[in-house]
Specification:
Layout: H1 2-9, H2 13-20, H3 28-40, H4 47-53, E1 59-65, H5 70-85, E2 89-95, H6 100-112, E3 117-121, H7 125-132, E4 140-143, E5 153-156, H8 158-171, E6 178-180, H9 187-202, H10 217-228, E7 235-238, H11 241-253, E8 263-268, E9 281-284, H12 287-302, E10 315-316, E11 319-321
Parallel strand pairs: 1-2, 1-3, 3-4, 4-5, 5-10, 6-7, 7-8, 8-9
Antiparallel strand pairs: 9-11
Helix pairs in contact: 1-2, 1-3, 5-12, 6-7, 8-9, 10-11
Length: about 325
């Protein structure tokens, strides 16, 4: 405890607190004596105790929404891991609707808990509009979203991820790439469509019509049934791995071989992706890096000078993971 450190160092507990918080009013000799006592007693400052002394808790409030989708769930896990590494816990409020009223209610709940700061997952357009009009008064970072004026944000470069998928397929000789999108009101779905179109246009290829999905394996299955009947389809980029999973089943049931007849790429790299049949080529999002950068942005607001190394530019680069679901374009008459 802090009193034990004070007793061993021969100072008051207020002096110990000043040393632990890097206050410049402590003499260097006293500072060194306190730090030696801290090391000798293996003392670790408690974030909750520090927060209460500053009239805030040692928790970070997270506003999420009621979803079982892999991406948002993995983002939350990345934030929790990063928070734990820097001595904070998290308090999550999941809202049923990501609009102004739902977001305001969640923020009110978290502010009432005296959270140190807020992390807001805002992946849909209604959430972005709500965040823009929300007078928070608490340090906050926005995730999975467009830029919001006045608030730092962190996201994966979705357009770059789509380009990786399309360029990989074109490099295998496919004339064009079809796309099964996510829900149209999701910012990430729109960004992946943009990246897909940009890549095809840059290569001088015609973009087929977008097939609308809803992130589910069921929508992937339905799209697969539709595409299996077309002889001009040789490559498909799915907006997430769950849709790719459904598509693989539809193709298998209809005698379409993957990748001999059609190559399929997903997005996210869910843990099961390597064990699908065939193992799925996909775009991996580094959710731990998203969490680390999110906490870096938040700590910059909360505790200047305590920002984790490398928490710079918020755009996190995705990577392509090549597996057996993609191959050379088939030769067709």
């Amino acid at each position: 405890m802090i009193k034990d450190v004070a007793r061993l160092a021969g100072v008051s507990h207020q002096t110990v607190s000043r040393v632990l918080n890097n206050h410049d009013s402590v003499r260097q000799e006293t500072r060194e004596r306190v730090l030696r006592a801290v090391e000798q007693l293996h003392f670790r400052p408690n974030a909750l105790a520090r927060g209460l002394a500053r009239r805030r808790s040692g928790a970070i409030g997270v506003v999420s929404f009621d979803t079982l989708l892999y991406g948002p769930a993995a983002t939350l896990l990345g934030v929790e891991r990063a928070a734990r590494r820097v001595g904070y816990g998290i308090s999550i409020v999941a809202v049923e609707r990501l609009d102004r009223d739902g977001l305001a209610e969640a923020v009110d709940q978290l502010v009432a808990q005296s959270v140190a700061g807020l992390v807001i997952l805002a992946p849909v357009t209604t959430a972005v509009a709500a965040v823009r009009g929300l007078p928070v008064g608490v340090p906050a970072v926005v995730l999975e979203s467009d830029q919001v004026d006045g608030l730092p944000s962190v996201s994966v470069d979705q357009r770059a991820g789509a380009r990786l998928a399309v360029e990989h397929l074109l490099g295998l000789g496919h004339r064009t790439v079809w796309h099964l999108s996510g829900q149209p009101d999701w910012i990430e779905a729109r960004s992946r469509i943009d990246g897909w179109r940009q890549s095809l246009a840059a290569a001088g290829r015609v973009a087929p019509p977008v097939i609308s999905g809803d992130w589910s394996a069921q929508s992937g299955y339905a799209a697969g049934c539709e595409l299996a009947a077309r002889r001009d389809v040789t490559a498909v980029f799915c907006a997430n791995d769950q849709q790719a999973l459904g598509m693989l089943r539809a193709f298998r049931e209809r005698g379409v071989r993957v990748p001999e007849d059609v190559s399929v790429v997903g997005f996210d790299d869910i843990p099961e992706a390597a064990y699908l049949s065939p193992p799925l080529t996909t775009v991996r999002q580094d959710f731990d890096e998203v969490g680390r950068r999110c906490l870096g942005q938040l700590l910059e607001l909360l505790e200047p000078g305590e920002r984790p190394a490398g928490a710079g530019h918020p755009a996190v680069a995705p990577t392509l993971v090549v597996r057996a679901s993609t191959g050379p374009a088939p030769v067709r008459p």
